[in-house]
Amino acid sequence: MRNFNLKFVIVFLMLIGMVSVPTLAKEGKIVGGVIYSMPSWFKESFLELVDDVDEAKQKDKHVLLFFHLDECPYCDHMAKNFDKPFLRDFVQEHFDVIAINMRGDKEVALGEDKAITEKEFSIKVGVRYTPTIVFLNQKNKIVARTNGYRSPEKFIEVLGYVQSKSYKNSTLAEYIEVNKKTGNYQLQDHVMFQKVTDFSTIKTPLAVIFEDKNCDACAYFHNTTLKNKAVMNEFNAFSVARLDANSTQAIIDNKGNKTTPKAWVKKLKLNYRPGIILFNKGDEITRIDGFLYTFHFKEALRFVSGNFYQKLATYGAYLAYRQKELLEQGIDIDISK
């Protein structure tokens, strides 16, 4: 009997050893973030914006709000650009720059009886990408903004628009159009670009890309973004058309109006190239009007084609949901390429 019991125990222990112990799934991680610092000459503000505007007014300056995010690679580029001599000198002369952390908890005083956190203020202003730059005039009104990163050469156009107070009689897009220098970028074709003249007939996801000869980010768009397999997989859900923003060819826009690419881009107030408008069911859902690396670019496409905009109010809310989903699946996210 003892031998039987001993054999039973041995067999039982062997079976336990054969059963593999489940291991915890490895969680993915976000890579490509950059630790950066703001230029030392940015204003040390108590974030009492009424006072900040008044102080700027006394010096005949505008307030420039720099919405940023910790470890944001685009913000790192932008912060470094502010220290380029030709930008730094112009900005210091004409603007007071205040940094706002998009997820920060510092209080922002909007008036004597109104204070909200940096995070709440970012939502109120409608920040979608970082960096977002918001300009306040001397009456504490928003007069211009840029969504996402722009090169120093393009950003100084925006600075000139605000400094000259051209916002009083023109849009930023109109100002750039009037003051632009003739560029030498040659528009490139792509196999996915469709020849569309009546956009009102397309009720499925639609991406309309506006380029022109002055586009300094179009080469990267074609040579890097459009050669990324994950980006192209997301584009498969779209009808894609590329338009020359200076063209006077007759077309019909998404609402059935007769127009031209030049008139349409003006109506859209799209002041970045390549500027991309993402439509679904004939309506604009969101736009890409700043530089994006491939991860954020492809997710902007998925936000529209997957109808996530119907469940999540903003691209930012979708991005938080999507990043959590991918990380839980053990997928690493590179935000820097």
From TrEMBL:
SUPFAM superfamilies: Thioredoxin-like (SSF52833). Signal peptide: none annotated. Pfam families: Thioredoxin_2. Keywords: Signal. Residues 10-164 form the Thioredoxin domain. The keyword Chaperone does not apply. This is Thioredoxin fold domain-containing protein. It comes from Candidatus Thiodubiliella endoseptemdiera.
